[in-house]
Design brief:
about 10% strand; globular; binds zinc ion; about 55% helix
Length: about 180
């Protein structure tokens, strides 16, 4: 195993991830403090928010528009409490890729699953702590291909799944929700 290459890859991942978070932190302005969480705004007219949860930048939520949506805030607060699985995963992949580039294929699946899991955990946090469910007018697509696309290309589970009551029942695992959605 080529340890030097692994260490080099890990360093690249950390530098990129931390720089991205540093950029969001220093470009944004603090508008509010919620306990130890800094709520900041970087107005690029995008109705979304990013939670900084890296090694150097933590407990920080950056809204990408001037409008602080309280519902999004509860979801992002959930992210501040999470272990950052995706970051740990990226570091692990960076370290292991020199062993075999074939690992990239299962890695994409695992990465996708971890993303969904982190998003759903944040949704469950907002629901259990603030009783807030994700709201959307999205309808479940009739075509299976469109449903597959919704699962694959969105960073969150699809909106038409996130608004459903069964999504907020812990016993329904994401895999179960996915299979049910695709095969019924
Ligand atoms: Zn999220």
């Amino acid at each position: 195993m080529d340890w030097e290459l692994s260490l080099f890859n890990i360093a690249i991942v950390i530098v990129f991830y931390e720089s991205f978070h540093a950029y969001l932190y220093y470009k944004s302005k603090e508008v509010r403090k919620e306990g130890k969480i800094s709520v900041r705004v970087l107005d690029i007219n995008e109705e979304n928010a990013v939670t900084l949860n890296s090694i150097f930048f933590r407990n920080t939520i950056v809204f990408l528009s001037n409008k602080i949506d309280e519902k999004i805030l509860t979801h992002e607060e959930g992210h501040t409490k999470q272990f950052n699985y995706i970051y740990a995963f990226l570091i692990a992949v960076a370290a292991l890729l020199p062993v075999s580039t074939l690992l990239a294929i299962p890695a994409i699946l695992v990465g996708k699953y971890l993303l969904w899991k982190m998003e759903r955990d944040a949704d469950l946090y907002a629901y259990s702590k603030y009783n807030i469910k994700y709201e959307s007018v999205a309808e479940r697509p009739k075509s299976k291909i469109d449903r597959i696309k919704a699962w694959v290309f969105d960073s969150h589970p699809p909106d038409y799944i996130r608004k459903e009551d069964k999504y907020y029942e812990k016993k329904n695992s994401l895999i179960k929700l996915l299979l049910k959605d695709l095969f019924s």
